[in-house]
Amino acid sequence: MAEVYKSRVYTDRLLYADYDPPEKFEAIKSIIAKRLIEHPKAICSYSGGADSDIMIDLIEKTRAIFGLPPVKYVFFNTGLEMKATKDHVKATAEKYGVEIEECRPKISIVQAARTYGIPFVSKIMSAGLSEWQKKGIPLSIADEYEQAEDKAAKRTELKERYPKCESVINFLCCCNSAGEPRPNIQLVINSSKYMRDFIGEYPPDFTISAKCCDYCKKQAAHLVQKDYDMIITGERRAEGGMRSVPRKDNTSLCFTETSGGQYRLRPLYYVTDIDKAWYKDYYGIRYADAYEVYGLTRTGCCGCPISHKAVEDLEKIRPYEPNVVKAAWNIFGKSYGYRLKYNEYKRIRRQKELDEKNKDSGQLSFEYIETKK
User: How many other CB atoms sit within 10 Å of the CB of residue 59?
Assistant: First the structure.
């Protein structure tokens, strides 16, 4: 049996990651207390979302228990935020008796999207497809790699043929820097099923990029956070995507030191959706109206195409905040349409594969019969 590759997300997990609540949250409080005692000059990003609500409650409870100094809270307003979110940020500040400073980016989300492009499927996929569009490398290199007996040698040859394109080669060929196949990790194109075939048959007619997040959130955050010793964020591994991939400053995945000498604390990193639900119910946490009234399960930049439910969620928001929905369609509309086309492409491919499988086994596909009615 072939060895299954597992990243440090799984191999370096801490013991409390497998605890059940309330023990897990007690462990998290201890971690918060320890790190705030060591690094009292701390800043925390508060988004107004569900994860942030759990995080600020944990931090403020811990501060009260141990008599710790205040934490600086900031809310990064991209310019495409729901009124429900902005109202909730104000209500949360009042609830805990803290100040949550609102910060805006130097480059608006509209300007960033027009200049650099718009996201598609995920940040990882957007970054990979963005580089593919810029470099102009043919998708056929993936076939060359797959057909090669010596895959490491083929990758070396591709690297020489396309200099300064290593990350794109790895992305398209679904391999790592050593030329070893890595088809099941998130950093490759087929982490989204059939994606390479889809963009080959239906090339995107718009520029793909996740730079809007970099300019409207990350760069704004760096400016505010640079003078603090410790940065606290609400990232959770369970969210998937970039948040579940180890990075240079993310070796233990919960608390790390950056190359610049700052520290990063991710107290919720090992908190699951089940853990969150328990905490909300046990402590009576009320989320923003975006959750409690509109019926969303995630918030953030309104209508961000990274969410597979972006179009569905916009329809939930529309009765309450039609203007922000209109703005989202104006900015991200092409990505929404391309995502719908990709979803249909996947459905058809899966159906064909199912029909072929059932044909070989002499069975009929119930899904096919229903589709034909």
Answer: 26
